[in-house]
Specification:
Length: about 120
């Protein structure tokens, strides 16, 4: 399962055409939902983009497949994307908290790479 946060509807459709994984867009209406509940929910909800930062959260994806997914998505979406995988801990977090943590980590690593 791939959770997409912050992508436009057009970008989501481009990704769906290329990626052979279950894709779930995460919208504003789910910002206070637990990640595990978002993954397990049935059906689709109305989509309103949640933030401007594009984040791909991969759940239960084979480690060898992760690299290919990152490459495939980067090939079709040219803007900066944060990639992450779920952990037993992050599955229990609200998606808003996970997004905040991922953005902080991304900022930290971006700053470190500029220093080196």
């Amino acid at each position: 399962m791939i959770l997409l946060v912050g992508f436009s509807l057009e970008e989501i459709e481009k990704i769906r055409k290329v990626i052979d994984e279950k894709i779930r867009p995460v919208g504003k209406g789910e910002k206070d939902k637990i990640v595990e509940n978002i993954i397990n929910r049935e059906g689709n909800l109305p989509y309103n983009r949640l933030g401007e930062e594009r984040i791909v959260i991969m759940h239960d994806v084979d480690k060898e497949r992760i690299r290919n997914l990152i490459w495939e998505i980067r090939k079709i979406i040219s803007t900066h994307i944060i990639f992450a995988t779920t952990t037993s801990t992050s599955l229990k977090w609200k998606i808003a908290n996970l997004i905040s943590e991922l953005k902080e980590e991304d900022t930290y690593f971006m700053q470190r790479s500029k220093e080196n």
